[in-house]
Amino acid sequence: MKTKNMSCSYPIKQLAKASLFLAGVAMSTSVLAKTHSLLIAVDGLRGDGIENAHTPNLDNLIRGNWANGYNTAFAHYAQTMKDAAPNSGPNHVGIMTGVTSNKSGVSGNNDVAGGNYAAYPHYLTLLEQANPSLNTAYLVTWSTDMQITNSADVKIDADDATNTQNAVDIINGTFASSNWQHGTDVDALFLFLDDVDGAGHACCFAASDNGYINEINDVDSQIGRILAAIKNRPNFDSEDWQIVLTSDHGGRGSSHGIHAADNYTIPFLVSSKTAKQGYLAGVPHNYDAAPTVLAHHGLAVPKNMDGVVQGNLVRVVNDNGIKQDLKTYLPFDGNYLDASGNALHAQVGGGTPNLQAGGKFGQYVKLNDDQEYLTLGKPTELDFGTDTNFTLMTWFRVSGDQAGDPVIVGNKNWASGANRGTLLLANEGNGDDFGINLASSGADRKDIDPIDYSFNGWWLLVATFDRNGVATMYAGSPTGELNIIAGDIVNVGDINSELNWNIGQDGTGNYTYNLKADLDDFAVWRRALSLDEVRTIYNKGQGTELNTLLNNVQNRYLTQQSNIQVGQDVSLVITTEVNGETCGLEWDNNRFFNERNAKWDCTGNADPMTFTVTGITNDGNKLIADGYLVANGNKGAFEWDSSKHANERNAKFDENSSGDLISIWLLNDINQTRIVTEASGQTCGLEWDASKLSNERNAKWDCTPNMDTFRIELL
């Protein structure tokens, strides 16, 4: 973690000249004076930090809604420099000078003072050289940044809160010092904020860490104050502002500096009246900040800068819906057929994969043997060559550690990552994490990893490949965090391997380690999905089935709109979500006096049952279906236990009775179903037990009455 102090220095301001020349281009002071810029660097802000925090101010900025006439080009997949470790020193210098470590000479935090700032000046220095009448401010919260030579009129090293207030005061014209008179109008303001990095070091640079996310929330509030100050300026409507935001590095665990995608992936944002609205094209880098600001102020960008001007080029927007360029879609509902309409079906490649009830949506495929995998063959639709964008997607669940580093889907010989082809991996680096590997040869091999995953819950995996930009790995956790990492793939050549595209195995079908996992809703597109589309599919962990997005209407779940009738036998399974895990209602293998305990299996398995409807009531708020629930296979009828302890009764399956009458309360939300019964004159709600043993929870009736919510899936 970096230490902070508070200091202030004020260089003597030079007299303005009528006109000055930079890089052979004459600059007019009147042209420069019309513009204002704010460059914010947030230390340790991962590319997915904004996505998982509560950031209404940044969200409005990204959407282009923060002020009339302004658009924002944004990337959650921007990259740090690669010729130095992703640490603060070299990347701070890069953000401010527009060059990477090879030119600046700064490769670590201890090198900052010796940077080559004469050949590669700070962007504020370049502005001052072009027009000394400009008013420039440099606010940092890490003392090492004071070693970066620059000609700003005011330089302050303070903490985040103090410098946020300083920024607001400077924008409002209420800041004053010996070299900055009260009422001075600011032209270019640099602000560095450090507390997010401190929170990451305190525990974790992770979407699942509350301390890290809460600090991003605080930064959003600070930025919101600054944006409000800009908008409240009396002449704001006639001013031309530019807002740039980026970061120096991401992180993993409580540290950074590792040469890996989770450390490299950062945000980059540019908002102005001339920026395009959308996601930035190509590969944005944090060292693009300096040239982007210089161009806004009308300066020619020095040719020796590594960075480029951002904001004018954005990715093409898909306006044709999720089906656009969808090449295959396998819902795994009773078969391996393609539901996209393209007849690109899967076949069993080896072993005997099982289709089971209780998937993320409908049924799922279970791969649990060394020889089990599916194959899509070698269709031309899945030839992506040297320049075709594409996306791989599936929902993924495991109950324990993988052996080795198995493939989720791929078309390369995984004997070496340098072999030609693409892989989406379930155990990259022999750990419980996701990753991407692709290459045309060993010379352009790319490994983009890792994202750690948990057991027993459904994870959404989406890997998008922009052949003129980055490959982005999205991993949506069962508990609602959307993890994002990315890596540059511009120079990767032909990835057509001439091997099969296999699910659960590499392209040869003979890789040593076979995938042991549950998969659902698998799809491939011949384009890169956008973050907005990924968000829609992920739906904060609840998920949205592609069949729904494709308007493939299927009566798969019991809801308030279901057409069920008295006397009908309904085949179903019942599942619930507990702390991100899918748990299915089952009967226990053990039997005592013709009774079996009811339980919730949190590996996602659920036993098939039949519900016989004896009554239907619709009170407007919900549909109530009364009836009896019987486990298939003569395993008993659902009942409440006659014994009651602390207002709770065990739930059980009795082989010698028709069961107790239950009522299923159905809403339009498939995840909000409730199940109740009357037990000895008391209303009792079905629940799962808080205690879990060997991935199982007891099922019980709470007669307070409390009740949990469920999802009822039709078979």
Mean pLDDT, nearest integer?
A: 92
| CA-based gyration radius | 29 Å
Q: For this entry, what is the oligomeric state of its chains?
A: single chain
Characterize the biggest β-sheet. Answer: 12 strands, antiparallel
**What is the 3D shape?**
globular
Structural class by SSE content:
alpha+beta
Number of strands: 38
DSSP helical segment count: 13
N→C terminal distance: 55 Å
Strand content: 25-35%
Helix content, binned percent: 10-25%
List low-pLDDT spans.
Answer: 1-33
Description:
This protein has 13 helices and 38 strands. Strands 27, 28, 29, 30, 31, 32, 33, 34, 35, 36, 37 and 38 form a twelve-stranded antiparallel sheet that branches. A nine-stranded mixed sheet has the order 1-7-6-8-4-9-10-5-11, with helices on both faces. Strands 12, 14, 15, 17, 22, 23, 24 and 26 form an eight-stranded antiparallel sheet that branches. The two termini are 55 Å apart.
